[in-house]
Every structure is written in C-alpha cells, then in structure tokens.
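Write out this protein's structure.
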Amino acid sequence: MKIISLFCGAGGMDLGFIKAGHDIVWANDHDPDSCSTYEKYFNHKPYCGDIEKVSSKDIPNGHVVIGGFPCQGFSVANKFRNSKDERNKLYLELLRVITDKNPKYFIAENVPGLCSLGGYDNIKDKKERKGRVFKIILNELANAGKKGYHVTFDILNAADFGVPQNRKRVLILGTRKDVFPVLKHPSRPKNLKRKTVKDTISDLQKPTIWKKGISIEKQSTNGIFNHFGTKHKVKINGHLGNRKTEWNKPSPTITGRGGGTGGPVIIPHPNLERRMTVREYARLQSFPDNLLFYGSPTSQYRQIGNAVPWPLAYQIARMLPKY
C-alpha cells in the first residue's frame, strides 16, 4: 500500500512498513538532522519543514497515513505536561491530513500518558477531568474524512514484539467505515523470547570519542558507526535515566528528552561506568548498524529516543493488505 508518513524522524516506523512490503510515497519531518539520517538510509528525500505550512493538496494520495506525532508534551517524563503544550497541537496536523486525504487506514503512535491527560481546568473533579483530552482525540479521529473511521486503541509494549526494551506506547488504529478488513492490534507472537540488553550490545567493543567537525562516515570503531557517548557521569538514584540497566533484561524505556525542555536522558551502561553510546541506544531501538545518525551526539540521541522501533511497526504493517 502507499504510505504517507508524518513526523517520520529517523525512520523507525517507516522501516517497519517497508519491511512489510509497503511503499512510502511521502514523508515529512521538521528536524534537519533527522531528515539527513532518513534520506541517506532510505534514498528517499523527505519534505523537511513545518507540516503546518504544507497544504494537503501538495501531499500525494496514499492508502495509509502513519505518524508518531510528537509526544513530549504528553509524556509523564515531562512533569510540566498539560493539554496546552505547544507540541501537542501537531496532533491537529495529523487530523487535518487524515481528513483531507481520506486514507483507507491510519496508524497513530504516542506515549501512554496521552490516555490520561486532563485539560479542562474549569472542571474541578480530577477524576472527571482525567482522560478528557484523549476522548476528544478519539472522537475527532472517528469523525475525520468523508466516511468516518472505526477507531481502536491499545497500549503495547515493544518488548513483546522482539525489541530489547521495555517501551509501552499507545497505538491508535483507524479503518475507514467503507473499508474491509478492519485493522486490529497485533497480539504478542507466540513463543517469542524477550531480547535482553546482553543479547543486543554485549559484542560492542570499547567506544570511541566523538570528534567534532569530522563526518560520521569517518568515525567508526571496527566498522561500527555512532559508537560514541556522553561524558555525563553515572549516578544511580532511582530517577529517570539514573536507574540500573541489567544485562539479562530488556532495557528501560529510551527517551528523546527529559522533563520539560531538557536534553536527552541517557541510561547507564550495565557496567555502571558510563552512559550508553549512540549506537547502543540505536540497537536497543532495533535500528540496523548500517543506518547512520547525523548531527551532534545530542541530536543523534534525540532522534533515536523519539523513534518507533521498527519491529513493533512491522507487526501492524503486516496486517494491512499490500495492494
């Protein structure tokens, strides 16, 4: 099927759909580094710019619209989260494109915190307020387009689908009301053994040092690119990014940013002597080693932390018809 990809980032979700046999006909992101990473791996140039300035008429038609719309405003990692966060409004661009392009299906991804976000500060009862924003989002998506959509949602853990990371995300699936079959959420594959941190990064040797001003293609450790990290010291205190990472378990959730507007919070390496490198982060998100990340190390960490792991996207994409 033909896929319109919004907020494509470094291409995690798109990679899952490509592996399932679909074609990306248009992709968009506003971050230049993410666009460079995407273009040089997929050999397909995304539109790099503000989606709010793109007319729906300039987007080609597609059978499916996908988008892991920016979630920092919704995330529980952001202690300042609220329904009025500027980053939240990009959901409206996803809604606009679905309404105007009228695809057969849509898939939207976000953090579980979206389900409980309140808003409506004039409502004093917190229980009544809880989840109001999410209910409005589901209702608006259900009434998008000319026919409307059957809309379902579920919270899935990427670790249940072959990703070596405990990463829970809410997946919203929409099927146009005149289309069959209705898209359903995937179940955990039977007999799937969870991948661990040890399975994923134990073969990597001691990381190199980031060399500013030298191209990524010229910085490798025995052929492994982006294998450099941060000088941020390890401090185990139980807070986000400062908890032990265990070899024999999936990793904690990787984030693109910390609370508020801070930089990425890099989880510790299991040896507790340093933080994870960019490549180790990429592997924990299931990115292949030949996908190189561009920009500063902070930008590279952010691109990885904001991505959708492709094995999770693949499980949904494989349920779509390929015509």
